[in-house]
Specification:
Layout lengths: L1 E7 L3 E7 L5 E3 L20 E3 H5 L6 E6 L14 E5 L9 E6 L2 E10 L2 E5 L8 E3 L5 E11 L3
Antiparallel strand pairs: 1-2, 2-5, 3-4, 5-6, 6-11, 7-8, 7-11, 8-9, 9-10
C-alpha cells in the first residue's frame, strides 16, 4: 500500500493510497494464542495481503494520520493511522471524519431523530451539536485504526 499526502489539516493529515501494489506477509492462519503458548510452526506458507484485508472500496478509501487527543478513550491516539471509507453510509455510533465549518474533525457520530452530535471520547472535550447553521458533511467512516505499539 503506497500513500501520498493530499492534505494536511489541524486535526488530520490525509493521504490517498495506491492499492495496486502488493505486499504479501507471512500469516499465522491458526491464530496466535493469548493464553497458553502453542507449538510454533516450522514454516509459514500462508500469506496475507493487507490491501485485500483492509481496503474494501479502493477508489473511495483514504488514509488519515490523527492529530489530537479527543478520541483517546476510544483507543485512538495521536499519530494513529485511520483507514477511512467515503462510500459507506454513516450510522449512529460510527467513528467518522467530519467536516464542520471549514475544519475536519474525528468524532463518534450520534444521530437521534433529526439531530446530530459529534461526540469526543475524552472527557476533556465537549460534544459538538450540528445545526442548520453549520457547514457540515460526514466525510467518511473509519473502518480500521493502525497503531504503533
Amino acid at each position: 500500500m503506497k500513500a501520498l499526502r493530499i492534505k494536511s489539516t489541524v486535526n488530520i493529515d490525509f493521504y490517498s493510497l495506491n492499492t495496486l501494489t502488493k505486499l504479501e506477509l507471512p500469516f499465522v492462519a491458526e491464530g496466535i494464542s493469548a493464553g497458553f503458548p502453542s507449538p510454533a510452526s516450522d514454516y509459514l506458507d500462508i500469506t496475507i495481503d493487507l490491501n485485500k484485508e483492509l481496503i474494501k472500496n479502493p477508489s473511495s478509501t483514504f488514509l488519515g494520520r490523527v492529530k489530537g487527543l479527543s478520541m483517546k478513550d476510544a483507543g485512538i491516539n495521536e499519530q494513529d493511522i485511520l483507514i477511512i471509507d467515503k462510500s459507506l453510509a454513516p450510522r449512529n455510533g460510527n467513528i467518522a471524519v467530519c467536516y464542520i465549518d471549514g475544519e475536519f474533525t474525528l468524532k463518534r457520530i450520534n444521530i437521534k431523530e433529526k439531530e446530530i452530535h459529534l461526540m469526543p471520547v475524552n472527557t476533556d472535550f465537549q460534544p459538538i451539536r450540528v445545526t442548520e447553521d453549520n457547514d457540515f458533511l460526514i466525510w467518511g467512516v473509519v473502518t480500521y485504526v493502525i497503531k504503533k505499539m
